[in-house]
Design brief:
The protein is an all-alpha fold and 356 residues long. The chain folds into 2 domains: 43-129, no CATH class; 142-346, MetI-like fold (Orthogonal Bundle), CATH 1.10.3720. It has 15 helices and no strands. The chain has helices at 2-5, 10-16, 24-30, 43-61, 75-95, 100-106, 110-129, 142-186, 188-201, 210-216, 220-245, 249-257, 262-299, 305-314, 318-346. α4 runs antiparallel to α5, α8 packs across α11 (220-245) and α13 runs antiparallel to α15 (318-346). The longest helix is centred in the middle third of the chain and has 45 residues, at 142-186. The radius of gyration is 31 Å and the shape is flat.
Length: 356
């Protein structure tokens, strides 16, 4: 038996002979750790870098088609900027481990970086190079740089005015909608009187009330604030009401058993349990209020992105119009991202939430 076990390792031999096996911790120490594999090259980053190099060379080496009234300024600057982006992507893709966090941040967007370069190249060729899309209705990407350079003051002032108007209307509508939803969801008396009004007036688009708002409001700004707040009010009120009304009764029974007051039940039980649906209402209200904001600014407000759009269309400055649309998209996306950050902080206990 001893001769038969001589070829086995000591740990196995001791087990078969009836002895105790060495602890797993000692076994793990005895085995040398494998060295970590070096971080590889980011292949999608290399492809994205090549795509941006192609875009830069296309912009710089292919002459623009004469448009008669414009030679598309900032073409060279746009081409150089794309080459700078290509160099940065190449460095990030090749350095690998030294830029680990940056690579992890950009890796999910790698294919989008390639698609963005391809889209900009198609845009550049169809406008500035071949003129397939007629001027001045369609402008190349470098025209947006020209707009920012020449008209940044008016565009920035319009953005500030829109943010101010949106903040006032959204906060007002969210507060009133939240209070209304809590009252309807908690009180049967409030639900009896308010519920029919919500069902009847809530689905009416806020933009349909533009004539009445501008007639009764003391100023165009206050009318726009009212319309933005109204667009926010309905989804926040309905979803807050739904959240409060759907709280399980056992929560209230346990709290009452421990001596909770009516105020405690509302503030510490009903509202926290309804917060996930409240944030859904805030997201819906933000999107609705942003669309109403642009419509209201087009009708009577003297500053704002909606006013800027109408002004650019009136002067056939379509490049300015496209720049304003991009600012609107970035602004709305940024506000939704900020709201998601707030939701993730407030509802850190909730699992499986939608990420933005």
């Amino acid at each position: 038996m001893t001769l038969a076990l001589d070829h086995l390792p000591p740990s196995r031999r001791s087990v078969l002979q009836g002895g105790a096996a060495p602890p797993a911790k000692e076994q793990s120490r005895a085995q040398p750790r494998r060295p970590a594999a070096p971080a590889g090259i980011w292949s999608t980053g290399l492809l994205a870098s090549a795509a941006w190099v192609a875009l830069g060379l296309l912009t710089l080496l292919w002459p623009n088609k004469e448009a008669g009234f414009s030679d598309w300024a900032f073409t060279q600057e746009f081409g150089i900027a794309t080459l700078v982006v290509a160099v940065l992507l190449l460095a990030i893709a090749l350095l690998g481990g030294r830029t680990g966090r940056l690579v992890r941040t950009l890796r999910p967007a790698g294919q989008w970086l390639v698609a963005l370069a391809a889209g900009l190249a198609l845009w550049e060729v169809s406008t500035a190079k071949l003129g397939v899309l007629p001027s001045p209705f369609f402008a190349p990407p470098q025209s947006l740089i020209d707009v920012v350079h020449e008209d940044w003051q008016r565009l920035g002032l319009s953005t500030v005015h829109s943010l101010r108007l949106l903040a006032n209307g959204f906060v007002l509508g969210a507060l009133v909608g939240f209070g209304t939803g809590v009252a309807v969801g908690w009180s049967r008396i409030a639900g009896y009187w308010v519920h029919p009004l919500l069902r009847f007036l809530g689905p009416v688009p806020a933009s349909a009330l533009l004539p009445l708002a501008f007639f009764f409001a003391p100023s165009s700004y206050s009318a726009a604030v009212f319309l933005v707040g109204l667009a926010t009010f309905f989804p926040v009120a309905v979803l807050t009401w739904s959240g409060v009304a759907s709280v399980h009764k056992s929560y209230y029974d346990v709290a009452r058993t421990l001596g909770a007051s009516e105020r405690f039940l509302v503030l510490r039980v009903a509202i926290p349990a309804a917060l996930p649906q409240v944030f859904v209402g805030l997201f819906m209200g933000l999107g609705a209020s942003f669309s109403v904001l642009i419509t209201a600014e087009m009708m009577g407000v003297k500053a704002g992105l909606g006013w800027y759009l109408q002004w650019a269309q009136g002067w056939a400055a379509y490049a300015n119009m496209y720049a304003a649309l991009l600012v609107m998209a970035a602004l709305c996306s940024g506000l939704i991202t900020l709201l998601f950050k707030v939701r993730d902080r407030v509802l850190s206990w909730q699992k499986g939430t939608v990420k933005w």
